[in-house]
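$ fold --in a.seq
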Amino acid sequence: MTRIPSPGAGLSRRTLLRGASALPLAGAAGWPLIARAAAPEYVFKFGNNLPVTHPLNVRAQEAADRILAESNGRMEVKVFPNNQLGGDTDMLAQVRSGGLEMFNPGTMVIATLAPISAITAVGFAFSSYDQVWTAVDGALGNSIRAAFAKVGLHTMDRMWDNGFRQITTSTRPVTAATDLGGMKIRVPVSPMGISMFKSLSASPASLQFSEVYSALQTKVVDAQENPLAIVQTAKLYEVQKFCSVTNHSWDGYHLVVNGRAWRGLPDDLKTIYSRAFNEAGLQQRADLRKLNETLRGDLSAKGMTFNDANPQSFRDQLRSAGYYAEWKGKFGDEAWALLESMVGKVS
């Protein structure tokens, strides 16, 4: 956390504020804008790996603007999209050390610190968004956030959506589990992703998201798996031909804040910050759900060939490979029971 930032990024906004009237103004969203000559007292950096056009970055910037306005210029949040501050594991290390105040790790990425996080990414656990939000906004999500607190991270109450993950390939469509045999597929840097695709007889390779496009382009891997919004905003359709709708795993983002930086904020700024990002998160969920309704058509128009996969064949393969038994053992009976109380029997 920076108390008095050096000149640079964000100067234009402060310059505009200095030139504004000293009287309160109403912003476009109705938030008061108060001109202040002084630099912000608190500056947080928020790093993420998503393109600037992704709904997460659109809503994050709105939240940042809202915080600046509602704090009367006392606090500024600078959003750094598109891996500007490093890959996922780099940013996770930075947010723990305090070099970065906020980061939005995916469920499987942050599981390297708090293993229970990956429970929401268990293969074919969720069948609908209603199940997802009931789980992550409720008791299961509270258990995950408590685990983050133990490793020094404060977490916003509302997860942001990444979406249900699909498989794209450059070689052949995936219609059933047997089509994955020997396929070189990129997965996140996480034990869960590796375990799932090994159990499906694929050859998973853990790569940072910043490396995915080039790895597909150079045929280091033939396939990858991500929600459709990522396929579109990262332009993966340029290097992938087939998209198989598997909905094999749901993925979301935890907005985590360095614990020391969070504790250093006055209570009123904590309230402003939490409200802005939690409400923006609900808006981002709605944005992504609406976007998903059009993405299949948009990506088809860009040359991708879609097919609907048979989910039961994947579940059967995971069960016979011992995948569910393995992860139930790792998460423990209590966490597994919480998951199944939301979605029904998984294993």
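$ fold --in b.seq
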Amino acid sequence: MSEQIFKPNSSGVNRRDFLKTSSIVTGGALVSALSIERSAYGAGTDEPIGKKEIKIALVGCGGRGSGAASQALETYNQGPIKLVAMADAFKDRLESSLENLKKQAPDRVDVPVERRFVGFEGYKNAIALADVVILATPPGFRSYQFEEAVKQGKHVFMEKPVATDAPGVRRVLAAAQIAKQKNLKVGVGLQRHHHAGYIETLKRLHDGEIGDIVAMQCYWNDGGVWVKPRQPGQTEMEYQMRNWYYFNWLCGDHINEQHIHNLDVINWVKNGYPVRAHGMGGRQVRTAIEYGEIYDHHAVVYEYADKSQCASQCRHIRGAWSSVSEHVVGTKGRADVSRNEIKGASTWRFKGEIKDAYQQEHDDLFNAIRNNLPYNEAENGAKSTLTAIMGRMATYSGQVIEWDQALNSKIDIMPENFNWDSKPKSLPDANGAYKIAVPGTTIAV
């Protein structure tokens, strides 16, 4: 995945019939022919899994997925754990990930060729073999895969964001409720919720240390990410999936893929979600064909129920001011949340021990699984995702977007089916350029 390594003090820094098509199962049979081992901690039971071995499956074998699998395997001090299945659309990514994971934890990785699933349907097979599933494909696939994992009764860790359009958000919200009914534990990769400094800072803010919070700012301004040149013979589907960051059905624009972290923190500060948003954005610097259809900057004002506002920015322009941070102003002071610092009647800054938040979120999830503790981050993950999508709707359309309007939008940006010859809804013109949203003209909700 594309996300930078989390530095809390940094100032610079699928379709309805998804997968009825094009499954290539490397060296194995379809799930109906598999000998499926039932979950060691079944849905709806009250018996903790305790020290039994937990089997995990990795779906999506890019950098963030591989990192998440590595962190899950590092919870071995809680009890035995093993990676037993992997799935990815691309064989090269799966094999590279597997090789690296074997080097890191050879005694905790057992994924023979018959449990490596390549293609669009492989995720179902991998899910069937595990107790816990890590979902780390590009975000557009997330809601379908989460829905399937819940259907199969599996605990889940899924990366953020959890969708790229409103129908996907609604799918996650529905599956989240079923997960609760089945007593399934769900973690979402918004790791600041597991960062000791953030936790203590938010507690102090909620306890009124700076009074009533009246204004907020948050930023994910940096230089942007990779581009993978189009290769001879590539279908449009493969090209877009290799460059998933630049296509909304896969990524949701960088306001969704990265800035969600900062927006989620502001929602946490407010103990709620924005009621409306307006903003502006566009493509000023990263305008070449290889940047697909996304903007290179967004500036959105979010309004909350108490009329307080958050001014948010995200930008992918190199050589400009960079910041990945969150700030709040109260009636009695202010806080740099990202630095875990408060300036009110006195100055406070968190000085306790901070464990890597990426690791901590897995420690917390697996502790909840082993000890049958309440744990479901899916609803917040879906609503923070919708916060980001609502911002994109506002910048693309140039209109004020209401929360309920965003949530109930019928605009579905996902392809109608999935195989390597399928056509995404966004296609290049005769010159190879993709249609770019135009505020005042584009209908985004």
